[in-house]
Write a structure and sequence with these properties.
A hairpin with a 2-residue loop joins strand 2 and strand 3. The termini are far apart. The relative contact order is 0.13. This protein has a 4-stranded antiparallel beta sheet with strand order 1-2-3-4. It is built from 2 helices and 4 strands; from the N terminus they run H-E-E-E-E-H. It is α+β, with helices and mostly antiparallel strands.
């Protein structure tokens, strides 16, 4: 089972190393469950969504989703109504 990566320096190194190897992809900002997020597309298809948890101005969690069933909901934008 994967272990959580803790600490700003370790997380930054992990992200910089991983994102630096991706060449045929696009990375776009988004809002997911009221949190800032990044949507990674490979060949035009959503591959990964990384939601960012922010508490008191600090990033306290990153949550990556790659499950195709869960990502299928990201294909369309949900319109909020009052």
């Amino acid at each position: 089972m994967p272990q959580p990566v803790r600490g700003a320096d370790k997380v930054a190194r992990l992200l910089a190393g991983g994102l630096g190897r991706i060449t045929a992809a696009s990375l776009r900002p988004a809002q997911v469950n009221a949190c800032p997020a990044l949507v990674l597309r490979m060949d035009g298809e959503i591959d990964t969504v990384v939601a960012v948890r922010v508490d008191d101005g600090l990033v306290t969690g990153l949550y990556a989703v790659r499950n195709p069933e869960k990502l299928s909901r990201m294909q369309r934008e949900t319109v909020l109504r009052r």
